[in-house]
Amino acid sequence: MALGTLSGLTLEGTWREDPTVCPHCGRAAWPVPQNITLISHVREAEWPRVKALTDRFKGFRFCPHLRCPVVYFHRDADLVVVEAEVRTRVGYKVDAPPIPVCYCIGVLAETIREEIVVKGCCDSLQDIQRYTGARTGKWCHITNPSGRCCGPMVQRVIEAALRERVEAGLAEEARRLAEQIPADGVGEAPDIPADTCCRLTGR
Ligand SMILES: [Zn+2]
Fold first, then answer.
1. Is residue 192 assigned to a domain?
2. 48 and 95 fall within a common domain
3. How many A from CA of 187 to the centre of ligand 1?
4. For 150, left (φ over 0), alpha (ψ -120 to 50), or beta?
């Protein structure tokens, strides 16, 4: 069946019994804690419609899956919002630069990779923060289109960069660094208050 989007586009998909599942890709989607996230990221032309919808509905979902065009959806509102209707580049959805990972400070995935792999920076996780700034903001619920902490995405990028560094022959050092990364479930929606989420805690 065809799903209706915010601006009247159509997209193939099916609403499932489970309202947390993305109707296009069929995978689990994250809750968007506050509607201000949608207002902050949809294109200005869609503000009247999104305002009317967010006045009526809460509990929108964010689909974090690569290449699925759905950014937000709400089953009861019979609504999907696709990438073309969002003015922010969604890092979770792209695998070519620029890949935004930390929206509070403005850090790209390629910047983190460059610091770790190319420049060989960083003796500790705090160093990685110092060099890239990633995970030091606290406005993710507004700045990050997922409405959630950038932590899991930053962690995924750091881990991939450290793996690359291992392949470059710096195994011991990379393993030591990897051990300092907090284990907060890559791919899961972090259940952390948005104003404290980016403060790093080592294990
Ligand atoms: Zn999806």
1. no
2. no
3. 14
4. alpha
- Residues within 5 Å of ion ligand 1, judged at the Cβ atom: 22, 24-25, 63, 65, 68, 70
For the chain, how many structural domains are there in total? Answer: 2
Instruction: Kindly list the distances between the CA atom of residue 78 and the CA atoms of 32, 35, 36, 112, 145, in Å, as whole numbers in the listed order.
Output: 16, 16, 19, 38, 20
Residue 187 resides in a domain: no
Within a domain: 196:
no
**pLDDT value of position 41:** 97
- Nearest CA to 190 among 165, 156, 160? 156
Residue 69 CA to ligand 1 center (angstroms) comes to 7
From 29, 51, 85, give the residue that closes a domain.
Answer: 85
Q: What is the pLDDT at residue 9?
A: 92
Distance 203 CA to ligand 1 centre (A): 32
Quote the ligand 1 centre to 88 CA distance (angstroms). 17
pLDDT tens, position by position, 65-119: 999 999 999 999 999 999 999 999 999 999 999 999 989 888 899 998 998 888 8
Ligand 1: centre distance to CA 62 (Å): 8
pLDDT in tens, 1-21: 899 999 999 899 999 999 999
Give me the domain span that covers residue 69: 2-85
Residue 197 within any structural domain of the chain: no
Q: Is residue 157 classed as helix, strand or coil in its secondary structure?
A: helix
| d(CA 168, ligand 1 centre) in Å | 35
pLDDT at residue 117 in the model? 86
3-state secondary structure of 5: strand
